[in-house]
Amino acid sequence: MDEPGPAVLDRLRAVRGFVLDMDGTLVLGDRENRGIRALPGAVELVRLLADRGTPCCVFTNGTVKTPQECAHALQQAGFPVPDDAVLTPATAAAEVFAKRGHRRVMVLGGKGVTEPLEAAGIETLPPLRGTTADAVLAGWYRQELTFEALEAACFAVLEGARFYSASLSPWFATAEGRTLGSSRAISAVVRDITRARVTVVGKPALPALQASARRLGVAPAELAVVGDDPGLEVPMAHRGRALAVAVQTGIGDADAFRDVPEHRRPHLDLADVGTLARLLAGD
């Protein structure tokens, strides 16, 4: 890791809010998002931000749990976060669907997807053949996924439903190593069969950053986005002109951005969030 220059450090100190990734950045758990444990320096970073009164939220592309369940899991792992600290693709999807007038949404996912949508007044529908929907949303749907569910999603899209995915990232970080993302796998099938365009509502899509910015009350360009996946947090930060901070505790490593053009690289490429905490503290 190269030492950050004074201009980057000045910008870091001027940041007014932080958007933090969860898996591979703050914590690692199993492929079902259970048994999470804090990564080195993660609790210290969140505590430092809390002590300073710097707004921060956690945006995870995971949709196994509801946002509140994710917050409770972080609390149990020692993080000083409030119950409303976490956003997920379902949070962003609710805003997108409301804006586009999607009232009936077929969901390939569990309560981690359906509950936030229903709380926003959107009717969620199971993936059953013959169901009429305004949109189809693919999320975490691993054990429950069947051929019939894929077929139902394909027919709904062929009959006019817009197709959305929580994420198109192929992997997410766990304590067991990389695990295949179900929304990417579902999206691959539906796109191949229907030739429909898929709209991502989680990271790295701009609606995910905009939802985070609204939650924090901070303009996107005044945020820092911190994460481990080279295809998610850094690209999203650049799209919103936020400060891009990469860490090497999950999907990405020290060589992750070696072949990436300079203007698409992170502003800070750090070993872990503990290093970020030390930079903020001026150590």
Order of helices and strands: HEEEHEHEHEHEEHEEEHEHEHEEH
Which outline best applies?
Answer: globular
**Main sheet record:** 6 strands, parallel
Percent range of helical residues: 25-40%
Q: State the low-pLDDT regions, or none.
A: none
How much is the radius of gyration in Å? 18 Å
Give the strand tally: 15
Describe the model.
- The chain is of the alpha/beta class and about 280 residues long.
- It has two domains: about 5-90 and about 205-280, Rossmann fold, CATH 3.40.50; about 90-200, HAD superfamily/HAD-like (Rossmann fold), CATH 3.40.50.
- Helices cover about 35% and strands about 20% of the residues.
- It contains ten helices and 15 strands.
- It has helices spanning about 5-15, 40-50, 65-75, 90-100, 110-120, 145-160, 180-195, 205-215, 235-240, 275-280; strands at about 15-20, 25-30, 35-40, 55-60, 85, 105-110, 125, 135-140, 160-165, 170-175, 175-180, 200, 225, 245, 270.
- The strands form four sheets. The chain has a six-stranded parallel beta sheet, sandwiched between helices. A five-stranded parallel beta sheet has the order 7-6-8-9-12, sandwiched between helices. The protein has a two-stranded antiparallel sheet with strand order 2-3.
- Helix 2 runs parallel beside helix 10 (about 275-280), helix 4 crosses helix 8 and helix 6 (about 145-160) packs across helix 7 (about 180-195).
- The radius of gyration is 18 Å and the shape is globular.
- The model has no long low-confidence stretch (mean pLDDT about 95).
